[in-house]
Design brief:
394 residues; alpha+beta
C-alpha cells in the first residue's frame, strides 16, 4: 500500500521556493557565510553549499504537515551546511523550521523545543568562553541563540496567543449558545405564562356566555331570555376588561396606558358572586390573611379556573371554596358535585388543569385534582398548597 504524504500548504510552497531562489542567488553572486580559509569549512567545492540548501527548502514543504520530521532533517542539513562555506539562506530556512515546529507541532514538542534550544544556547555560550578564554566566544552563543532559541521562543509566544484566541472564540460561542438557550427558555416561559393568564381570565366569562346563550336559544320564555342576555352582557364586559388588562401588561406601561393591578384574594367575593350569577351555588370560606403577591395571584387563578370547570362540568349541588393559612402554607380547596357527562355544558380547551398545575409548580407547591367520595356524595376536588416563603412570579 503506497504511503500518501499530505499535500503541502501553498504558503509553505512559497517559502520553500523563495528560500531556494534566494540561496541560489547568493550562491550565484558568490556570497557565503564563511570565507575559504574558515577552519570549519571542511568542503571547499562551490556546489557543496547547494545540497543543504535544497534539503532545507524541501523540509519547508513539511513545516505544517510534519513539523518534527522537517526539523530533524533540517538540523542534519544545517550541520552539513556548517561543513561548507555556508549560505545565509540555509540558516534563515532553518530558523523558520524551528519556529514552525513549535507553532504547528504537538503540545509536547512545543514545550520541549524552547527548553532544548535554550540549553544549546547556554552551552554554546559557556563552552567557547571557557575553552578559548576570550570574550569573542560569546558571539558563538549569541549566534546560536539567534538561530535556535529566538525562533523557538517566538513560535511559543505566537502559539500561546493562537490557543488563547481559539479558547476565547469557543468561550464566546458557548456564551452565545447559552444566551440563546436562555432566551428561548425565557420566551417559552413567558408564552406559557401569558397562555395561563389568557385562559384563566377569559375562559370563565366565555363559558358563562356559552351556557346562557344556549339556554336563551333553547327556551322561549322572554323573561329567561332577558335574564340570560343580562348575564351574557355582564360576562362580556368583564371579559373585555380582563383582556384590556392583559393587553396593558403586554404593552409598555407608561402614562395613561399603565396596566391595571393584578387580581387579589380580596376579590374572591366578587368572583364568587359572579359564579352565583352564572347559576352556581357557591359557598366561600376564606381565612388567608396577608400573603405574597405571587401566591395571592396563583390562588385567585386556581379558584377562578375551578369555578369555571364547575360551571361547565359539575352536577347540581353546592360548590365549596375554602382557603386557609397553616404553617406558612396557603391551602386552597374547591369541591363541586361530580357528574358523569358525555360532554361539558360549554366547550373547553382542556388546558385548565394543566395551567393550575404549572402555577403551583412554579411556586414549589403541591397540587391534586380528581373525584373523591364525601358525606354529600361523590365530588370533584381541586387541592393546592402554596408555600409563602419560596414563591416566584406566577
Amino acid at each position: 500500500m503506497a504511503l500518501t504524504l499530505p499535500r503541502p500548504h501553498r504558503d509553505d510552497v512559497r517559502i520553500a521556493v523563495g528560500g531556494l531562489l534566494g540561496g541560489l542567488t547568493l550562491w550565484g553572486v558568490g556570497l557565503h557565510s564563511r570565507g575559504p580559509n574558515d577552519p570549519m569549512a571542511r568542503v571547499d567545492q562551490g556546489w557543496a553549499v547547494l545540497v543543504p540548501l535544497v534539503v532545507l527548502a524541501g523540509c519547508e514543504l513539511m513545516r505544517r504537515t510534519r513539523p518534527r520530521t522537517a526539523l530533524l532533517i533540517g538540523t542534519v542539513a544545517l550541520v552539513a551546511d556548517l561543513l561548507t562555506r555556508g549560505s545565509l539562506a540555509s540558516v534563515v530556512l532553518f530558523t523558520d523550521l524551528v519556529y514552525a515546529a513549535v507553532l504547528y507541532g504537538s503540545p509536547a514538542a512545543a514545550r520541549r523545543i524552547p527548553w532544548i534550544t535554550g540549553l544549546v544556547t547556554v552551552i554554546s555560550t559557556v563552552w567557547p568562553v571557557a575553552l578559548w578564554r576570550k570574550p569573542e566566544g560569546l558571539l558563538i552563543g549569541a549566534f546560536t541563540g539567534l538561530v535556535t532559541f529566538t525562533p523557538a521562543a517566538t513560535g511559543w509566544i505566537v502559539r500561546n496567543h493562537r490557543d488563547t484566541a481559539v479558547a476565547e472564540r469557543l468561550r464566546a460561542e458557548q456564551t452565545a449558545l447559552l444566551a440563546e438557550m436562555d432566551r428561548v427558555q425565557a420566551v417559552t416561559a413567558e408564552r406559557a405564562r401569558m397562555a395561563r393568564e389568557l385562559h384563566d381570565m377569559v375562559a370563565n366569562h366565555l363559558s358563562a356566555i356559552a351556557i346562557h346563550s344556549t339556554a336563551a336559544l333553547s327556551l322561549r320564555d322572554p323573561k329567561t331570555s332577558e335574564d340570560a342576555l343580562a348575564v351574557i352582557r355582564e360576562n362580556s364586559v368583564e371579559g373585555l376588561a380582563e383582556m384590556q388588562r392583559l393587553i396593558g401588561i403586554l404593552r409598555d406601561g407608561s402614562g395613561d396606558n399603565r396596566p391595571a393591578a393584578a387580581p387579589t384574594l380580596d376579590g374572591l367575593g366578587a368572583l364568587v358572586d359572579g359564579a352565583r350569577a352564572n347559576g352556581l351555588d357557591v359557598g366561600l370560606s376564606a381565612d388567608h390573611g396577608k400573603v405574597p403577591a405571587p401566591v395571592e395571584l396563583a390562588a385567585y387563578r386556581i379558584v377562578q379556573e375551578s369555578l369555571t370547570n364547575a360551571l361547565k362540568h359539575a352536577g347540581p349541588g353546592r360548590v365549596t371554596v375554602a382557603l386557609a393559612l397553616r404553617d406558612d402554607w396557603l391551602t386552597t380547596r374547591v369541591s363541586s358535585p361530580y357528574a358523569d357527562r358525555d360532554r361539558p355544558r360549554a366547550p373547553g380547551s382542556g388546558a385548565g388543569l394543566v395551567g393550575m398545575r404549572e402555577r403551583v409548580a412554579l411556586l414549589h407547591g403541591t397540587f391534586e385534582a380528581g373525584p373523591e367520595d364525601s358525606p354529600a356524595g361523590r365530588v370533584w376536588t381541586v387541592r393546592a398548597a402554596l408555600p409563602l416563603n419560596r414563591g416566584v412570579a406566577a
